[in-house]
């Protein structure tokens, strides 16, 4: 496919979003403005906790009552500045924007990081949002370099971008990697180089072929033979087992294939996103408030821990998905997302001002099998929650600065 046709596809995708928004009644809608103001105040508090450091927020240890931080190489480093930019756009508070710019300077060296597939998370969520709000030539150059770094991990024989660095004869690909493809689509859009686009599509197609079970649940990870492209074995990853449905993994899949449809207008990706949405929403272990257990097959249900991060990702994805499907499912997905927002914005999941280390949401689960980040706040939970709030405000006509 030539660059001209690709550019047309991107324009069609943008027009589709613009022409077919969900029409929603005003009655009973969530009042987003005060929620966003509260979230902004929390991140101003979090900013103060980081003052004078070059660290990125990771989580909060409620037992030790201290903020846990990371360097810029941590896969979550882009979420904090990304959330700051979303909150700045929603509230107009320049202190949020300035803090985001400060963090970008710390992130800049990661444009050349070829050791992780998470460069998409790190750079597109941060620099991508900054460039969307206030475009700068240097942001564009950094993002292009980041896309090139991500491309070094693509193997045409396997048809995927490698996720984890293991032994030479291992080629591990996890569902999370779907989220990094948006950077590659953007790179083709701005450079006209279709290499990025084709690698992203190939990765999505290979994942579509191999990651899903007959019930439309998905494996967290697969290990391929890098020389033949054959599947060596499936991996439980951060799920309960290789046969279980890890909640955040299903959410990555839902979000990933929804954005694939936006960027390509290929119907098979929309169909897959719908299949994942139906699996999630109709799962017998999905609680009534739509905040999933950390794994849909977790032991101890109904007493298993919930995962607010999976709920936030689901919410943002469902709001976008509602724009691309017919009226009946659109209403269903929107209402499901609205229910998630009501729950996450309640005191059960939203921290009181000045608590929780400055994070917005409580009760996320990072990696249960490894025993790390269990029932804690997480930066990506906040990021996708704020993104969902902004998407909801746009859909309901409340997207103005307060």
Structure description:
- The protein has about 400 residues and is mainly α.
- The chain has one domain: Alpha/alpha barrel (Glycosyltransferase).
- About 50% of the residues lie in helices and about 10% in strands.
- The protein has 13 helices and nine strands.
- The strands form four sheets. A three-stranded antiparallel beta sheet has the order 5-6-7, with no helix packed on it.
- A hairpin with a 4-residue loop joins β1 and β2.
- α3 runs antiparallel to α4.
- It is globular and about 55 Å long.
Write the layout of secondary structure elements.
Blueprint: H1 3-19, H2 32-50, E1 56-61, E2 66-70, H3 79-91, H4 94-107, H5 119-133, H6 137-151, E3 154-155, E4 160-161, E5 171-174, H7 181-191, H8 194-210, E6 221-224, E7 231-235, H9 247-264, H10 267-281, H11 308-321, H12 327-344, E8 364-367, E9 372-376, H13 379-395
Antiparallel strand pairs: 1-2, 3-4, 5-6, 6-7, 8-9
| Shape category | globular
What is the quaternary state of this protein?
single chain
Spatial order of strands in the largest sheet: 5-6-7
Number of domains: 1
CATH class group: Mainly Alpha
Query: Would you count the extended β strands for me?
Result: 9
Order of helices and strands: HHEEHHHHEEEHHEEHHHHEEH
Name the CATH architecture.
Alpha/alpha barrel
CATH topology: Glycosyltransferase
Q: Whole-Å distance between the termini?
A: 44 Å
Question: C-alpha Rg, in Å?
Answer: 20 Å
SSE class: mainly alpha
Question: Can you count the helices?
Answer: 13
Average pLDDT rating: 93
Strand content: 5-15%
Low-confidence runs (pLDDT<50, min 5 residues)?
Answer: 1-26
Largest sheet: 3 strands, antiparallel
Percent helix, as a range, is: 40-55%
């Amino acid at each position: 496919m030539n660059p001209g046709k690709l550019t047309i596809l991107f324009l069609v995708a943008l027009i589709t979003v613009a022409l077919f928004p969900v029409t929603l009644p005003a009655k009973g809608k969530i009042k987003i403005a005060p929620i966003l103001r509260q979230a902004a105040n929390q991140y101003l508090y979090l900013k103060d906790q980081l003052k004078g450091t070059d660290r990125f927020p990771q989580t909060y240890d409620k037992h030790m009552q201290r903020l846990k931080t990371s360097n810029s190489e941590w896969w979550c480093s882009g979420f904090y500045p990304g959330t700051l930019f979303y909150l700045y756009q929603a509230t107009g508070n320049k202190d949020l924007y300035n803090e985001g710019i400060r963090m970008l300077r710390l992130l800049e060296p990661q444009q050349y990081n070829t050791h992780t597939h998470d460069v998409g998370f790190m750079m597109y969520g941060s620099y991508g949002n900054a460039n969307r709000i206030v475009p700068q030539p240097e942001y564009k150059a950094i993002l292009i370099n980041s896309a090139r770094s991500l491309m070094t991990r693509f193997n045409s024989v396997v048809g995927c971008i490698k996720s984890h660095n293991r032994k030479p004869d291992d080629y591990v690909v996890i569902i999370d990697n779907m989220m990094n493809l948006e950077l590659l689509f953007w790179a083709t859009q701005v450079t006209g180089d279709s290499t990025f686009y084709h690698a992203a599509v190939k990765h999505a197609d290979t994942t579509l072929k191999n990651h899903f079970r007959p019930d439309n649940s998905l494996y967290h990870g697969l290990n391929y033979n890098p020389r033949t492209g054959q599947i060596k074995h499936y991996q439980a990853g951060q799920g309960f087992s290789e046969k279980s449905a890890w909640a955040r993994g299903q959410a990555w899949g839902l979000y990933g294939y929804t954005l694939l449809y936006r960027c390509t207008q290929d119907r098979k990706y929309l169909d897959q996103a719908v299949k994942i949405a139906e699996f999630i929403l109709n799962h017998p272990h999905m609680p009534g408030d739509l905040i999933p257990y950390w794994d849909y097959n977790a032991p101890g249900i109904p007493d298993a821990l919930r995962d607010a991060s999976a709920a936030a990702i689901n919410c943002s994805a469902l709001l976008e998905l509602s724009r691309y499907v017919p009226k009946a499912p659109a209403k269903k997905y929107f209402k499901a997302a609205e229910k998630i927002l009501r729950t996450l914005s309640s005191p059960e999941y939203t921290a009181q001002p000045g608590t929780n280390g400055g994070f917005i949401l409580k009760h996320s689960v990072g990696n249960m099998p490894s025993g790390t980040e269990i029932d804690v706040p997480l930066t990506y939970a906040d990021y996708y929650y704020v993104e969902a709030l902004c998407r909801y405000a746009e859909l309901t006509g409340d997207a103005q600065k307060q």
